[in-house]
Design a protein that fits this description.
Helix 12 runs parallel beside helix 18 and helix 15 packs parallel to helix 17. The protein folds into two domains: 433 residues, no CATH class; 71 residues. The protein has 19 helices and no strands. The chain is globular. With 505 residues, the protein is mainly alpha-helical.
């Protein structure tokens, strides 16, 4: 698992770093106001549809079935199944594209009713530019799932870099566009084209391809769509919470949507590099082991992944709560994105940090069901968590007046409801076994996280006055990271045998 995790995590880290460069550039050029709020709605439009029709559905519904066929040596049947799914995907995507492009003014007005007419008009224009990205990325996602199923992880982890690089390029050339928001929007499209061609090349390199034909209804497709429908329903319900974020933030002061976005981007860095990478590696491994009736191997892989998830994400969660202001100021408070905007994002980051381990654990625990071709249970649990999320946000934002902090905190607490419910259902059905190895790794993981938080806070409080005034926040963040990293390493080395890091873990 470690070799594959390093492959996925390394390229995902590169993607997150290029994404950070993109976001820093976007914050500096676009700022935290009218253009930024409109851009982020237009930019996230295709990304939320991607969650419904992309990784959120293809991976749980398609990958376990495709991986099981490969594990049994039925390569021809796997290729036929992939082509049939792809044909249906393309037919659906063409219909969605036509409907979305024509109905975009109504969709935008429903999502952000608090926007002024000029901002709403700009949002529609930007969304129409970015939306075709969806059909390109869906192709890349299915190819990624196929590569992951045969344990070829690097390309599937690397392809997202292309969009970041293209957006960086268009932002640097923003004066050639009507404004910087249009430059970023066109970068999304150019990035989609680059991602598509890269994944076609990578798949062909490993002997995989997709062929489109007239969609046909077969028993395999019927089984797939039964699972796909459940997962799509669950994935669509996941989008309800972000849509409510848009809705609530549109009534908050200008820049609130942008503040949430940049807080989420910081929160997503460890989640994408560590949590999602572990989930990506775990699902095909569990699916293949269960297809070979290796229940013990499947359980061991899952427990190890859960232990690693907490060991790697808890320290970030504590740091986000302890020093969120230093983090956001150092990364984003440059150019048009001022310290006032950074302060708003920092408060949201602290709230998001509460849920960071849960965001990562959801993928690990949900694999209990997805690997057994049960997509309905996670979908139902997700719907429950979304209902809790919506209720909490209404109370926090409209009842308690917490603003962007209330929006982020509702998301964080609902993630824990999601994980807790999945664990309870998995254990009550005898599908989820929590090993003693996992429980032994929990204490050192908590100690490592506490050491990180204490060290980071101590460096910020004590060392601040002694650091250079120029780029003070950057130096402060680097010093805090150094101190926290050293303390983390000491705890990990002291408890090495108890952690899921060795070959026998």
């Amino acid at each position: 698992m470690f070799r594959r995790l390093l492959s996925v995590g390394g390229f995902t880290l590169l993607s997150r770093l290029t994404g950070f460069v993109r976001d820093m550039l976007m914050a500096s050029i676009v700022g935290n106001g009218f253009l930024s709020d409109a851009l982020l709605v237009g930019f996230l439009f295709p990304n939320y549809f991607r969650q419904i029709f992309g990784e959120g559905t293809i991976n749980p519904a398609f990958l376990p079935r495709y991986a099981a066929l490969h594990a049994r040596g039925q390569e021809a049947a796997a290729a036929k199944f992939a082509d049939e799914v792809f044909s249906w995907q393309m037919a659906a995507q063409v219909v969605i594209l036509v409907l979305a492009m024509s109905a975009m003014p109504f969709i935008a007005r429903a999502m952000v009713p608090g926007y002024a007419p000029s901002e709403l008009s700009l949002t529609v224009d930007l969304a129409r530019i970015t939306f075709p990205y969806l059909i390109m990325t869906v192709v890349a996602i299915q190819l990624s799932a196929m590569l992951n199923a045969i344990e070829k992880f690097w390309a599937a982890a690397a392809w997202s870099n292309f969009q970041n690089v293209c957006m960086i390029a268009t932002l640097l050339c923003w004066r050639w566009f009507p404004n910087a928001a249009f430059a970023a929007a066109w970068g999304v499209v150019f990035g989609g084209v680059a991602q598509l061609f890269f994944m076609l090349w990578a798949a062909k390199r490993d002997g995989l391809s997709l062929r489109v034909s007239w969609p046909r209804w077969t028993p395999e497709i019927a089984e797939f769509f039964k699972a796909y429908g459940a997962v799509t329903f669950g994935a669509a319900s996941v989008v309800v919470a972000p849509l409510l974020d848009f809705f609530l933030a549109s009534y908050l002061p200008t820049g609130s949507r942008t503040a949430l976005y940049y807080a989420d981007r910081v929160d997503q860095l460890p989640l994408g590099v560590l949590g999602i990478a572990l989930g990506t590696v775990l699902l095909p491994e569990m699916s293949a082991r269960l297809a070979r009736n290796d229940r013990d191997g499947s359980d061991a892989a899952q427990n190890r992944a859960a232990g690693l998830t907490l060991l790697l994400t808890l320290p970030f969660a504590v740091a986000f709560v302890a020093i969120p202001d230093v983090l956001v100021r150092a990364v984003f408070a440059h150019g048009a994105f001022n310290k006032s905007a950074a302060g708003l994002s920092a408060m949201a980051l602290a709230a998001y940090g509460v849920g960071l381990p849960a965001y990562a654990l959801v993928r690990i625990v949900a694999s209990t069901f997805y690997a057994r071709h049960d997509t309905m249970t996670p979908a139902r649990v997700t719907m429950t968590a979304i209902a809790v999320n919506v209720a909490l946000k209404v109370v926090f934002v409209w009842g308690l007046g917490l603003g962007v902090v209330g929006i982020a905190l509702g998301t964080a607490l609902a993630a824990w409801v999601n994980v807790g419910t999945l664990v309870w259902l998995g254990r009550s059905r005898g599908l989820l076994r929590v090993s003693g190895r996992f429980w032994r790794s929990l204490l050192p993981s908590l100690l490592a996280a506490a050491a990180v938080g204490a060290a980071a806070l101590a460096v910020v409080r004590i060392g601040g006055p002694y650091l250079p005034k120029r780029l003070h926040d950057v130096w402060l963040l680097l010093a805090a990271m150094g101190g926290a990293g050293l303390c983390y390493a000491v705890v990990v080395l002291a408890f090495w045998r108890m952690l899921p890091l060795g070959r026998r873990a």
